[in-house]
Amino acid sequence: MSAIKPDPNDPEFFDVVIVGAGLSGINCAYRLMKQQPGTSFVILDGRDSIGGVWDQFRYPGVRSDSQIYTYGLSWHRWPFTKPIAEGSEIMEYLHDAVSKYHIDDHVRFRHKVSKIDWSSQRQEWRVTADHQGQPRRYLARWIIMGTGYVDYESPIEPDIPGLDNFKGRVVHPQSWPEGFHYANQRMALIGSGATAVSLLPAIAKEAGQVTMVQRSPTYVVASPSQSDRTPFWLPQGLFLAWRWLYWLIRPYLLVLLANRYPNFVRQGLTAGAAKELPANVPVDPHFTPRYDPWRQRICLDPNAAFFKAFHRPNVSLITGEIAAVTDHGIRMRDGETMDLDVIITATGHRMVLGGRIDIRVDGKNLGWGGRFVWNGCMLDGVPNMMFMLGYTNHSWSLGSDNTAMYLVRLMSHMKRLGARSAVPRVPEAVATRGTQSIWQLDSTYVREVKGRLPVCGNAGPWKPKNRPPIDWLYARWGNTTADLEFSM
Q1: How many angstroms separate the CA atoms of 343 and 171, rounded?
Q2: Which residue in 126, 323, 331, 411 has a CA-CA distance of 20 to 30 Å to 359?
């Protein structure tokens, strides 16, 4: 008698379903394997490769904007000798990590999760994913959202008057064309953020002419990217621990300094920029932002490559308002014009939490906007769901790893209790004391979605997680049960 094949339409059960095979999802999988052995889990990803944004973003010069010693996985050593990593190096590193620890055995590609629905009666999530046009269904005790905050499917549409009139090529870095050749082309790079800072020196090597056009400037700081080898007199283990603590605490102290003494930090950043720039590119107005340091993210410039690009004869910088895009170029409000072959719109990305997944609790649609956040990772009134949210003013993965630690500790506590679900409940005393933004930056992409974001409170586990050293300790040894309601 032949064995009965399982019906592919029957739902599979897992203790944990992780949505997203990026850095956060990979890290969460490792924590489950090592600290919750025997837990069944699966990683569902709509793409055909691991990596998340690092697989999506393939524009020239793509790299990390944080020191890799804290951005990388704490349990998998970074093999390269520089602290700022190129996108290809990060992908190689992630592939090595998932292969070494067999995390890839748990990943299912081309499984785009479209809907999750919590059943209070069954105490489990019902998950629907699309796999090459066919529905796949899963049941899970826990859902982990490793979806990040970038909308992969629809980059932000830049508000540039007349852009549709341009007869040349318009390229968005998030959707960089494969095999795009731009040698000897006249290019305008519109933008001033991290993407533009990393993209400019890369394209300047081949382009005929590159003009960076920015409406408002950004703080940019030159950062060394040299070999960082272990001193011969220091045991390697102690050196690695010291290096990790150094890169954990140093950025945090810089943020505190910027918040307390913004003018002092502003003067230091603008003086540093002036030191690197050629005489024909003045700091004012090109590198004097209207906002205080760390109100938006400060861009790192490894080995001053961005600043050095302005020493090239084929690179120029314009700060001002675009009046209109014409058939063959750009006209600025002050009357300056430029003839172009290519326009690159590095004007930011669209922000979305939850990967556009239809999230429901007992059939009722979940709205993220205005909902309180517990310990930076769970939503008030939503059982057994955590989302990986990193830091805005530090390495992203530090915050997502804290969430993974909350998960494994909470799962251990629930096993001891015999509980099947945990749901945060914001106390009235907290709800009536006002709210704070969950996102500590005031970037344009944040202002666009402000009303659709959850919020933080002003007390207890509802306060924002914005103190990396203290948050790291609390996620491992602090209280993980405050304001949680458990069901058996």
Answers
A1: 6
A2: 411
